[in-house]
Amino acid sequence: MYSYLQNFINYLSVERGLAPNTLESYGRDLNQYLTYLKEKKGLKNAEELSTTTQATVAGYLLNLQAKGRATSTISRSLAAIKSFYHFLAREMIIPKDPTANLEAPKQEKRLPKVLSVESVLKLLEQPDLKTPAGIRDRAMLEVLYATGLRVSELVSLRLTDLNLEEGYIRCLGKGSKERIIPLGSVAVKYLQFYLNHARKFLAATPGEETLFLNHHGRGLTRQGFWKIIKKYAEKLGIADRITPHTLRHSFATHLLENGADLRAVQEMLGHVDISTTQIYTHLTRGRLKEVYDKAHPRA
Questions:
Q1: Is 280 a catalytic residue?
Q2: Is 285 a catalytic residue?
Q3: In a domain? residue 107
Q4: Domain count, the chain
Q5: Quick one: pLDDT at residue 299?
Q6: Which one of 38, 179, 271, 287 is the catalytic residue?
Q7: Do residues 40 and 172 share a domain?
């Protein structure tokens, strides 16, 4: 069974060009499913996968639910399982896809956590600009808030992705899709400051191309960035309101609050479906209601 899983992961990587983080997520979810089949259903080899039915998969999802897994986790697991079975049926390893008519549980749409403009500005001002690491941190935070990049996209940036003269960056998002995102003048200023006064003290080798480096001179990881932003959030007493994507969510919400076009925000965020971007309009509507209640004499 596990050899077919590896073939499937290779297919996702080579033919569909999925990002390493996505491949890791697929592998983790499917490993858990195959372990369940082995331990609970006694399946021992790939051929026995053809004996699984829609009820088998539904039983696994109920098992996840019983363990208290979130609806979003269950939906993600089902998506991975459906894609795996579709691959097996297409390759004629199994006669039919048992998940063809199986629907994911409906998810409750949770609004993302967003900081006020004032809180964002305070967060941006936390790094110590007297140290190379502090200058790097300020540049990273400014870039995140200026562009709405995902953290994984931020730490993957290379020197060649910058065009500071024209004021934009190039980034490879989900599915290796390239997008060009404008940089504000403040982000450009701190990136130049980082490149001129800090990065050379962090780089272990002259040929290192990754933009943001850790104290070992190698590229920062998502976990490394998360520790950095959490440290500054704790200093401000807002750690409970910070997630790795807080500045991304704040970027989108603040743009829409100030009249930005929804399609433009969708393009900058790299959302394939505009419905994903529309969740931010719920936040801006709430803000409008708050302003109305405070300002209107007959509210």
A1: yes
A2: no
A3: no
A4: 2
A5: 47
A6: 271
A7: no
pLDDT, one tens digit per residue, over 177-224 is: 889 999 999 999 999 999 999 999 999 888 899 999 999 999 999 999
pLDDT at 40: 74
Q: Catalytic: which of 41, 86, 174, 179?
A: 174
Considering the domain architecture, whether residues 124 and 189 belong to the same structural domain is answered as yes
* Contact by Cβ (8 Å): 145, 120: yes
**86 lies in the same domain as 123:** no
Which one of 76, 136, 199, 248 is the catalytic residue?
248
Residue from 38, 218, 245, 287 carrying the catalytic annotation = 245
Statement to judge: residues 66 and 126 lie in one domain? no
The least confident of 14-23, 117-126, 210-219 is 14-23
| Active-site residue, from 76, 136, 138, 150 | 150
Residues 156, 63, single domain; the answer is: no
Q: Could you tell me if residue 66 is inside a domain?
A: yes
Residue 63 above 60 pLDDT? yes
Residue 97 belongs to some domain of the structure: no
Predicted TM-score (pTM) of this structure: 0.63
Per the structure, the complete domain to which residue 8 belongs is given by: 2-90
Q: Does 254 qualify as catalytic in the annotation?
A: no
Question: Domain end: 90, 109, 131, which one?
Answer: 90
Check if 271 is active-site. Answer: yes
> Annotated catalytic, 248?
yes
pLDDT bracket for residue 30 (50, 70, 90):
very high
Residues 6+ apart with CB under 8 A from 165: none
CB neighbour class for 128 (10 Å; exposed up to 12, middle 13-18, buried from 19): exposed
